[in-house]
Write a structure and sequence with these properties.
Layout lengths: L1 H7 L5 H31 L26 H41 L4 H16 L2 H16 L6 H26 L3 H9 L4 H31 L11 H10 L4 H32 L2
Length: 287
């Protein structure tokens, strides 16, 4: 078992592997607590109906206009409603990012493993996930447990998060793999000459350069992740676009276009954050 682990992960000490597994478990625990309350909010919307229609808009998905509502009051009401919906987008985005980035690195080790069954298993999973639509994957996570095991997935937000984490972990894995394969072999050999273990070479030399070389590709995927969170509406997660659709069903169309503001502000913040991150990386490398 020890030799198998060393072939999958370039780590020479058992304690390092255990520490990494504990970190992943900690991330899962924290993410579960983050989504718990938000999941209750999504699921409580449908408690009034025993079997809500797939994709149907319920009363709790959006606020209703009041009598003699003026334009300013309507704008304020709808803005607050969309903000409340956008928090589900942010929750899916944040939890997916926290879990998919390290999970992608683990899959990368599997893709580059010297053990043929593990390498081909990881390649097959990556091929399936990258070759199928994310919307279909959300449907699979939400419906398949009930079809196969008779225990339907009742937590809509959790189903969306699981699908997003798996999907984006596979894309991050391919980004990491490309960056690792483009690393000069002299980097590893120089580390061995200096007497560094595989662990120290990877975490103190290679990993930093992998992050630097793949930062632009990761930044694009992170922006795509934020935009893709709107797909959670296919399992009736009441995110910002679903809230806007509820208003459109009442004859108020402009909230659909108003959601553009939320996405542009968020993607602008992400772009600025990555620009700052890349500048810090260049300073650290003396460029």
């Amino acid at each position: 078992m020890k030799k198998i682990l060393q072939n999958i992960i370039p780590v020479s000490k058992q304690s390092r592997i255990i520490s990494a597994l504990l970190m992943v478990f900690l991330c899962l625990t924290i993410s579960g607590s983050i989504t718990a309350k938000a999941s209750d909010d999504v699921n409580n919307t449908y408690e009034a109906e025993e079997e809500p229609r797939m994709g149907s808009l319920q009363r709790g998905d959006f606020t209703l206009p009041t009598d003699n509502e003026d334009s300013l009051t309507r704008f304020q009401r709808i803005t607050l409603d969309l903000i409340d919906g956008f928090r589900f987008n942010i929750i899916i985005f944040s939890v997916t990012l926290v879990l998919a980035l390290p999970l992608g690195m683990i899959v990368t080790f599997g893709l580059m493993s010297k053990i043929l069954p593990i390498r081909w298993f990881c390649k097959t999973i990556v091929w399936i996930i990258r070759g199928s639509p994310l919307m279909l994957q959300i449907f699979i996570v939400f419906f398949v447990p009930g079809l196969l095991f008779g225990t339907p997935m009742r937590d809509r937000l959790l189903a969306a998060v699981i699908a997003f984490v798996i999907n984006y972990a596979m894309f991050f894995a391919e980004i990491y793999r490309g960056a690792l394969e483009n690393m000069p072999k002299g980097q590893f050999e120089a580390g061995k000459v200096l007497g560094l273990s595989k662990t120290k070479v990877f975490f103190h030399v290679i990993l930093f350069q992998v992050i630097k070389n793949s930062s632009a590709a990761i930044g694009n995927e992170v922006i795509n992740l934020l935009k893709d969170t709107s797909l959670a509406r296919v399992v009736a997660v009441s995110e910002v676009l679903m809230r806007a659709q509820g208003q459109a069903n009442l004859g108020i169309i402009w909230p659909l276009f108003y959601t553009l503001v939320f996405y542009l502000v968020a993607t602008g913040a992400i772009t600025l954050a990555f620009m700052y991150f890349e500048r810090r990386l260049k300073r650290a490398t003396g460029e």
